[in-house]
Each structure stands twice: as structure tokens, then as C-alpha cells.
Amino acid sequence: MTQQSTEARQRDTLRRLEKFSRLTDNSIGIPFTRFRIGLDAIIGLVPGVGDLAGVVLSAYVLIEAQRVGASRAVKLRMLRNIGIDFLGGLLPVAGDAFDAIYKANTRNTLLLKRYLEEQLAVEPPPQPFPWRMLVGLSLLFAVIIGGLVLIL
Question: What are phi and psi of 28, to 5 degrees?
């Protein structure tokens, strides 16, 4: 796969994840405030299964990170964020507020974005000088010129 197609695939992944994170963490504005919540916080209100459903949703960002080749360190930080979000959400009453504030999907998308931007900023190593081709072409020209000299 070429560098350009890899870069395009990574940018597409980031666009999808940013939309997903916005939906799960920031899609609903609370009237008369600047605060926003998402579907993750609303799903978390359902006792028992809400927080588990939030973990399943959050796993999507982790799966995408695996698919684009994120480092182990980035994926471990993502797992930590998912775990903190899950455990914090388990607390009665305060857990629902924690879910609305912590925004694990946005954090994980930002982690992946920073990682991919670092990867895209690194220039590929320069191609080695094609010595074999230079020597081969030089020999070919020498043979052609030698043949021409003998003919004339």
C-alpha cells in the first residue's frame, strides 16, 4: 500500500471517529449552558446495562486504532480511559454525571489523532542511491560504444 493511500485511509478513520465521538460525547446541548452531553451519558442512565453498552461503544475507537496500526502504548492508554469511564459510571448517581464529564471516546479519538499525526509527520527514509543500476547502465554503454568503435 502506498504512503498516500495509507494517509488517506488514516484521515478517513479520523473523520469517522470524530463524528462518532461527537455523537457519543457531545451531541446534545444542555439548555442555557455551554455544556454538552452525548448518547453515552444517556445510555449510561439505564441501570446495569447502560455502562456495559458504553464500554461496547467505546470499543469501536479501540478497534479502529488497532486497524490503523496504533502503537501498543496508545491502545493501552485507550483501554485505561475506557476502564476509568466504565468504573466511574458504576457509581450511583455521581456515575451518571461522571459519564457526562469524562468523555472517554473523545479522549481516545484525540489520542489516536495525535499518534497518527506524529506518524504522518515523519518523512519516509530517503531511497538509497541506485548504484547497481548506475554500474549496469555504465557497462551497457561501454559495451555499445566498444562495439561501435570495433565496427567503425
Answer: -120, 120
